[in-house]
Amino acid sequence: MSKEKILHAATRVFSEYGYHRASMDEIAQQAQVAKGTLYYNFPGKSQLFKAVVKAGFEDIMERTKTDLSSALPIKEQILRVLRHHLDLFLDSRHFAHIVFNEISNGIEPDVLDELKQLRREHLSFLAGILREAQCEGGIMRDVDADLAAASTIGMLESTCNYYLSHQEEYSREDLENFVFTVVAEGLFKSLD
Amino acid sequence: MSKEKILHAATRVFSEYGYHRASMDEIAQQAQVAKGTLYYNFPGKSQLFKAVVKAGFEDIMERTKTDLSSALPIKEQILRVLRHHLDLFLDSRHFAHIVFNEISNGIEPDVLDELKQLRREHLSFLAGILREAQCEGGIMRDVDADLAAASTIGMLESTCNYYLSHQEEYSREDLENFVFTVVAEGLFKSLD
Amino acid sequence: MSKEKILHAATRVFSEYGYHRASMDEIAQQAQVAKGTLYYNFPGKSQLFKAVVKAGFEDIMERTKTDLSSALPIKEQILRVLRHHLDLFLDSRHFAHIVFNEISNGIEPDVLDELKQLRREHLSFLAGILREAQCEGGIMRDVDADLAAASTIGMLESTCNYYLSHQEEYSREDLENFVFTVVAEGLFKSLD
Amino acid sequence: MSKEKILHAATRVFSEYGYHRASMDEIAQQAQVAKGTLYYNFPGKSQLFKAVVKAGFEDIMERTKTDLSSALPIKEQILRVLRHHLDLFLDSRHFAHIVFNEISNGIEPDVLDELKQLRREHLSFLAGILREAQCEGGIMRDVDADLAAASTIGMLESTCNYYLSHQEEYSREDLENFVFTVVAEGLFKSLD
DNA sequence: AATGAATGAGTCTTCATTCAT
DNA sequence: AATGAATGAAGACTCATTCAT
């Protein structure tokens, strides 16, 4: 009960302020529990943060998995993965930022390792989908699937970030089209 | 004199610890000046950080510009831009991280705006080069140059990051080839 | 049932950490009861501590009494008292320390008074034995029995403490001989 | 300047409350400096405590040394040492208690080691004087000088403690006589 | 131009205690 | 008789910033 409330509040607060500016006081207040209750449910700030990030990764992976099905053509599956991540980066911009980026700053090393592990798992998940695409249809280029997953995530986040501060200039459809194009065909017509 | 030393030390310290974990004490110590001297030369921590980031952006832009010349074919110019940014992300990993990412966390809003402006200028610079490529040769796809610049930066950083924690699996050449392929041709052979 | 378990665990925990560093959490855990059970059986931490100290005093007094008997020559009785206290200070070093010394630190005043009373009773018990020695045989010097009891306890504890951190240099027998000599004859051959 | 004030205040506060109940807030208040000033001058609570204890040991040793001189007969020297320690235990009861006893509780292990070292040095100092007495005059029994020093300190403190809570029953002279007797001749007329 | 002692608001964390069940 | 979730006061410590020199 309290744990739920705390996790929700912590997600909000970490998203808004980032790890370091977020204070346990603020989280307790927003969760409407006493500060001690935070420490009754989580060992400390960094562990609470880890729980938030973990829930975030699990959520995006769960949502993506649910929407996929082997019945779909690989091409469609990848489009859906992209769309899910776009949703995440657009709807929960700040949350996505902490989940994908705040992982590197000044967090206790032991927790940091676990966070990196979570990120690795997420990338593996994406890479797995890409690898399938390579095996099956021969649709995909023969690039390293892990690098491809990593590069795609960074590309998506950066692009969404830019989009969000220039919303008047693009529509959501523009964004999707751009992303699909870049992923699919790259920037150049030909470089040879 | 002092200003130089402080700027160098601040770059080192911010790179190592990130904005929030970096302390003015540590910076003063590494710069071998008294703490008061920091405040004599810079109004405060966030302003000092801004100066560091600004110098960072200027450096990468300067280095890139120097290496370009209208004599070169556009294609080659873009390769060089990519290579310069790869260098930055690989050699000064942490520095690049704060320059490109720490900009969004929990920094005082007034300074944050100026930092965002700096990032915008850098993206404009890159977008400018891409736009040239579009005008001139018809080599490039007709995607939005600004989005393309933003997406490329994100892709580069994320890819380098992954590469740096998996160096045993890839060579630097692998990395370059991958990046060039992705930028040039995207991930798919065809999606239609 | 629970009370017993708690008392045992509390003794262990107080002995290991001292009064202030010992936590009710730790005690509950070691006693394998819920924290609430502690408060069901004892009014609070200081009262629990008092119970532990009381049991400690009673134990050493009981053990000593059991081993004495009016049949024994006074001299032998005193040797036995010394030996019992040596055993206590050596075998249950930390426990003895809290029983005899932690009594004065920063404990709630109300409980502190009761603890001091317990110590007083123990000293009275020892002084009683000494007084007997004085009456009966004329073996003992005509010093104040209460002061003598107090001084002896302090001497024993301090000596055992030193011994315990220099065990490689002395045998247990050395220690006993030293203590008996000091008690019996003092440090000097003659001071007149 | 501040350092002095802090050290004085800390001595007062630690003496009154013991290590754990003493709070940095209270010390800062009594020293009339801001809390930050405490940490500017001392790395932390335990280090501040160490400084207090160190000053205490140095003070008693200094005062004792000053009063001794090789011209005096050994017997007189030892009487003076005893008197100085009596003064300390009587005049600065609480301070002496923390200096000699609080050394064992729940202090950070690294600092604890240094504190133990200080105590060791003090005992060595006392043992040195005793050893002289053994060499020179043959006045002293052939007991281990280190054990003798340790036992004497414990005896003194314990006796003073008892005296202080029963002042109506003894005079200071009674106390001195008792202590001298015990040290000199022990408790028994003869035990053989 | 430079210093560094001093500050105090802000943070994380601990823990004895309570109480509804 | 026993539980354990929840509390909140209290405490140690950090650090950007100020200012007299």
From TrEMBL, chains A, B, C, D:
Keyword Transcription regulation appears in the UniProt entry: yes
Start and end residues of each HTH tetR-type domain: 1-60
Pfam families according to UniProt: TetR_C_24, TetR_N
Keywords, in A-Z order: DNA-binding, Transcription, Transcription regulation
Annotated DNA-binding residue span(s): 23-42
PANTHER family linked to this entry: HTH-TYPE TRANSCRIPTIONAL REGULATOR BETI, HTH-TYPE TRANSCRIPTIONAL REGULATOR RUTR
Protein name as annotated: TetR family transcriptional regulator
Species the sequence originates in: Paenibacillus cineris
UniProt lineage: Bacteria, Bacillati, Bacillota, Bacilli, Bacillales
